[in-house]
Design a protein that fits this description.
The chain is mainly α and 195 residues long. It contains eight helices and no strands.
């Protein structure tokens, strides 16, 4: 396994991801509804990535309405939770801007895969299907609840492991990784839509 998930409360990860996807979808809709962008999705995406980095560097995201860290080792440190939230929110925002619906729970692994740098092909391999969007969606809708939870856990754990490594190497939280995340998500969306 990519990461020792025993030290993280799974429902906290799920809650963080759900909030981030919802908030990202709302932010993406704000871009789409703002006529001043004149429908230029590339400019919207670039601005969303830039704002995510600036916001993350300017303010730690500790004011959400749920507890990310408790006093025992099963909690998730707020720095890692903030990074998870920021990356998944940005991914969801970009998905919304580029017209991929994130309202259905079956699309959440797509957002997590894109945010964690997993390619469309890698995700399709994990789902044991072709990389065509309709095949991936069908596979995500037809898998068992346990398999669905396992995929989300593996993808979330991969992303969290990246953050833990970053904190270990740099001894701090670095929101500039959102630039890399944004590029990775755009590449995932391009590949997903072109198959």
């Amino acid at each position: 396994m990519l990461f020792d998930i025993s030290e993280i409360r799974l429902h906290v990860i799920g809650q963080t991801v759900a909030f981030a996807i919802e908030h990202g979808r709302e932010w993406g809709q704000l871009f789409l509804n703002d006529l001043s962008w004149r429908g230029n999705k590339a400019k919207m995406a670039k601005h969303a990535i830039s704002e995510s980095v600036v916001f993350g560097l300017r303010k730690n995201i500790n004011n959400l309405n749920f507890d990310w860290h408790d006093s025992n080792s099963s909690g998730m440190k707020s720095e890692i939770a903030a990074l998870l939230y920021s990356h998944v929110k940005l991914a969801s925002t970009l998905f919304t801007i580029y017209g991929i619906d994130t309202t259905r729970v079956a699309t959440h692994p797509l957002v997590l895969a894109a945010a964690s740098g997993v390619s469309v092909t890698e995700l399709a391999t994990q789902l044991e299907t072709s990389s065509a969007p309709q095949c991936i969606q069908k596979a995500l809708q037809s898998i068992s609840r346990n398999k669905f939870a396992e995929i989300n856990t593996v993808l979330g754990a991969k992303l969290i492991a990246q953050f833990k490594e970053q904190i270990k190497e740099h001894n701090n939280v670095n929101y500039t990784t959102l630039n890399t995340c944004g590029d990775s998500v755009k590449a995932f969306i391009t590949a997903y839509r072109s198959v």
